[in-house]
Amino acid sequence: MSRMRVLVADEFSARHVAELQALGLDVEYDPECTAEALGSGTRLGESNVLVVRSTRVTRAAIENAPCLALIVRAGAGVDTVDVGAASERGILVSNCPGKNSVAVAELTMGLILALDRRIADATSELRTGRWNKTEYAKADGLKGKTLGIVGLGRVGSEVARRARAFEMHVVAWSIPFRPERAEPLGVGRCAALHDLAGASDVISVHLPQRVETRRLINADVFECMKPGTIFVNTSRGGVVDEAALAEAMRSKGLRVGLDVFETEPAGGVAPFQSAVTSAGLFVGTPHIGASTEQAQNAIAAETVRICAEFVKTGTVPNVVNIEEQAPAECQLVVRHYDKVGVLASVLGVLRAHEANVEEMTNRIFHGAKTAVATIRLSKMPTPEVLREIAALEGAVIAVEAKPLGNLA
After folding, report:
1. Angle between helices 101-117 and 293-313 (to 10 degrees)
2. Which of 297, 335, 77, 117 is nearest to 207 (CA)?
3. What's the gap between Cα 122 and its chain centre?
């Protein structure tokens, strides 16, 4: 059998490339690979696994990858991967959630402090030879202020921990809101996003980019904010309406810190423009929230773990495009002899009666003479189907079917 082939199409440490090779994988490392190259129809070739960080994986790339079985996004989120196209072709998509949470939280606090103390502007004047203590001695301070966290997931929770160390009062709005996560952190709940906007002195956004979060932070939300509110986004640019944000900076004096933008260049170095950068007090970074050595090493190690599990067991940790519960109507339990062809015969009966298998497991009893198969079906089998399966002489011991709503 040929070795499983992996294409690493982004920056990856030599140590972790070597760890992938130690799994018995044939690894091709191409950190200069582009989305256009992946979609060209020749780049992925015989690759079974694709590892990317920021390189986009388009529908064209997926449709031109006949051997591809797994895409690993070496980072949080999968917005750079066409997950729908992958699902259509039965390709698993996985990511590395939580491994960069501390790094993003640290940058978040850095942006908040930089806005409150106007660190970037003061530095800029010092570099031009101007001492302006009169201007930059003005700051509110963070102690006792209310920080509103939009999205109390892994990163939001890490921000809350750090904000509490600054003696800030922390509230959050999140869907779902998990009291068991919020209460140990001393985080209060806001029932609505607009309530949080009005109650907070500082707002930090930590939302995934999905259809339902697209430009969720819009003009209506900005209208609810206090004049001079510090607003920070280190999640995804698409969750904020940048035109509305720029207008709020001009009209309400919002102080804004961004690591992410609605439109970002594909390359590491490129021209860049955004209306937000010149609309008022602004500090920003070029999407580097996860870019610490600590975070990158943790993400790379998780990528290796995902690949190792896939090679050894065929299962994939952190998979994002498998239904948690298959859309089945009933569960068929078949106790049978552990012999070649038994399950094939059972599946043959189901196929003849157009009963689609949505999910199946098969467990072997001690002694390896008998087994039990649990098969979830698209529809309830008729008594005739059950009789045909039970009649598989020398193969089936017993069979029963129950609707999924009545499995007690």
Report:
1. 160
2. 77
3. 36
CB 278 within 8 A of CB 79: no
Per-residue pLDDT tens for 64-120? 999 999 999 999 889 889 999 999 999 999 999 999 999 999 999 999 999 999 999
Indicate the pTM of the whole model. 0.79
Contact 328, 357 (CB under 8 A): no
- 79-85 — which CB contacts under 8 Å span 24+ positions? 79/208, 79/209, 79/236, 79/238, 80/52, 80/54, 80/55, 80/56, 81/52, 81/56, 81/57, 82/57, 82/58, 83/320, 83/321, 85/58, 85/59
Measured CA to CA, the distance from residue 43 to residue 348 in angstroms comes to 39
DSSP string spanning 172-193? EE-SS--HHHHGGGTEEE-SSH
Integer angstrom CA distances of residue 269 from 30, 107, 265, 286: 18, 20, 8, 10
The reply to whether omega before 66 is within 30° of 0 (cis) is no
**What strand order describes the sheet that includes 357-364?**
357-364, 370-377, 330-337, 396-403
Q: How many CB atoms lie within 10 A of CB 268?
A: 8
Segment 245-293, tens digit of pLDDT = 999 999 999 999 999 999 998 778 899 999 999 999 999 999 999 999 9
The residues annotated with a catalytic role in the active site are 236, 264, 287
Kindly report the CA angle at 260 between 254 and 262, in degrees rounded to 5?
90
